[in-house]
Design brief:
Number of domains: 4
Strand content: 5-15%
CATH architecture of the largest domain: 3-Layer(aba) Sandwich
Distance between the termini: 48 Å
Structural class: alpha/beta
CATH class of the largest domain: Alpha Beta
Helix content: 40-55%
Shape: globular
CATH superfamily of the largest domain: Vaccinia Virus protein VP39
Number of strands: 13
Number of helices: 21
CATH topology of the largest domain: Rossmann fold
Largest sheet: 7 strands, mixed
Strand order of the largest sheet: 3-2-1-4-5-7-6
Radius of gyration: 24 Å
Length: about 525
Amino acid sequence: MQQSLQDYITEITYISNYYGDLTPKHLVFVAAINNFPHPDIGRPFAYCELGCGCGKTVNTVAAAYPNSNCFGVDINQEHIKIARNESFGLSNITFLDMPFEKALVQSLPRFDFIVLHGVWSWVSDAVRRDVCKFVRKFLKTNGLFYISYDSMPGWAQLLPFHKIMSLYTRNMHCSVEEKARSAMAYLQYLNCNRSPFFERNPDAEKFLQMLEQSDIRYIVHELFNCNLRPEYFCDVAAELRKAGLTFVGDNNYINNYDMTLPEPFRQLLATADDRISMETHKSIIQNDRFRKDVYAKRSGKTPLPEEMKKWLETFLFGASQSPEELRLNVDFQWYSINLAPEPYLRIFEILSGDQMTIQELNRKLGRSADALAQTLENMINCMLSHQFAIFLTKTPVGEVGEKITFTCEYNRRQITNWRDQYSRHVYLASPVTGDAVAISKRNALIISMMLEHGLRPEAVLDRALEFAREDMKNGGNILQFSVDQNISQLMLFDYEEIVSHLLKKLYRLGIIR
């Protein structure tokens, strides 16, 4: 099995997905609601993803923020080859196929954002030290660092998976992918025959069920790297403190508030001596299994609450869903958001078709300047419901024409090369939201035909059906049809949905003209 010097698996590529949590707009909002200064994403900035994998996220950031200067670093040469190939049309991105230790001595800019998704849990102490050195050297003052990792105590009952799978396959002379499939079969055998490991550990059975639905590449990288080590929040915070970093907040907006916890636990948090202790209590109470945290390199100055409001006032807010989808009551796994009809129905009405700053929304609500803090609180509550988002610019006004034209070459290539995508969906970068929209490969196929034939249904559907039938005839099923489905009927339905809804959405997001 090929591995790096740090025993990190490079024999098989990792799954290629887009992780919206890593985008600059999410990071700056987390900083703002936690009263931390942050980079101005309205101006040119530098962004780096360590362990960028196949580059889906960093490529999308580069496309959505054309004034940014983006870098992706990964030790796996195949990852970087895929990432570079997919970056066609982007002039503001650089990829480095090297370990972090080597990246430390490169001539790189100072970064406003450095992000690290998942990697921390799978690498050696030496590599973790290199991450800290890289952040200390290259992150700007008031820059933001994102880190996600497997955490305790949620992983406590799942750690045996790592040891069991390694022990079972250690003498097998085959690829790591074959080892992972064999280990999965062994675990399924234990579960089906009601081994006490599963019988007395319901979380283990749920985890196995999740793995059964997962890509084999995820299983390999999650459970076959020698250095799998979930950690408590306070231990990660202590390591990052050595890199000059201060904890900012949880990347999941609502986790920065105590509304997710029952009242007795809120009282417990109030007894914490400092922010790290409080966050550690919260992580234990919630049995965190995976954390997504934001840190900052502080300048030493503590901002005033008025400064936080000033930062929040610079953002454009708008609805991320259509008006008919907006709800006053939103249920999540552990909590509910309940918004009162007054003033939220009015806010929904105002923002469902426009994007505004807090000052503009305040005026639209007919409130005085003194009510700005109340409007800001209302808007944060809307954001916590996950139905509203930050926008970089206002959505364009107009109608979709008879011919589709993409606003950037990167998105056009994502569509025309949809069948070569390593991810399950096709991700299109939006310069309006600074994020991405995922579309199915069936929709991508139809839109690629529209690029050639306009919106004429006969020509588009004939070509799309020809591809689908040929694919199934050759034993493939990239479009995920079943043999008993009426493919013609489903393709027609997809076409009508694209014309009536999806194209309008892509136009509003600045993806097509």
